[in-house]
From TrEMBL:
NCBIfam families: tatC. GO terms for molecular function: proton motive force dependent protein transmembrane transporter activity. The chain crosses the membrane at residues 44-61, 108-129, 141-167, 187-215, 227-244, 250-271. Part of the twin-arginine translocation (Tat) system that transports large folded proteins containing a characteristic twin-arginine motif in their signal peptide across membranes. It holds the Pfam family TatC. This is Sec-independent protein translocase protein TatC. Belongs to the TatC family. GO terms for biological process: intracellular protein transmembrane transport; protein transport by the Tat complex. The gene is tatC.
Amino acid sequence: MATGNLQRPDLMPDLDETFRLEEEEEDGASMTLVEHLEELRWRIFKSLIAVVVGAVVAFIFREPILRFLTLPLPRLSDSLRLGPHGELAGKGLITIGLAEGFTVFLKVSIAVGILLAMPVILYQAWAFIAPGLYRHEKRAALPFLIMGSILFVAGIALGFVVLQYPVQWLIAFSAGDFVELVSADSYFTFVAFFLLAFGIVFEIPLVLTFLAKLGVVNVETLKRRRAAAHVGLWIASTFLTPGADFYSPIILGVTMSCLYELTILLIRFMVRPSQAGT
């Protein structure tokens, strides 16, 4: 039986070709660890410069920014006798200590500066990570980056819209028993954490969709555990909202539950049926 002409099928060329094509999709030449660290240093430096520039701009326009952030306060004027600019019982937001007023301006300016610099920060982060990704990985990651930014901004926007309700409840709760003197530092800290909480929870659809793409979760799992998920989200909402007011956990809990249901719809449309479990 002649076997000299029989050859074992060689699968390695196909595998080598696959890796070669993947390598050709990479952008830029390979870099050493020191070069990566140097690039990271410059990316961080450029991001910090953008934050400083944004903070300086915010500090210059600090008065209109502060008036905007105190918009929830004048809406309480009927019940709490607030003045046209948020004055409470003839007083505005108070400061405790000689330097607290400057510190509040500085904190608000830095926070607004970070928001203004966020496009630059995201670009610098993407520019550092992207060269190490294959082209198909970039196509998969970029929509998540864009959608995550949009959802975060949407969460902050909704948080600011509903901010008046926890502020109203907290002030009205003690108005009959105490003279409510609202510290500027405590108010803006409350606003910052409240808006940040809304921004974070709006990332829930993105996180679950990403897990669905990885095959970790699917639609059937989300539907089957819907009741437990809603209970967990409502419990989490009580810890994510600052203050002991009645409205904040409810508003955040309803929002998180709606986002959970929205996630199920997004997975149906954005993830392949084999991954989505449908």
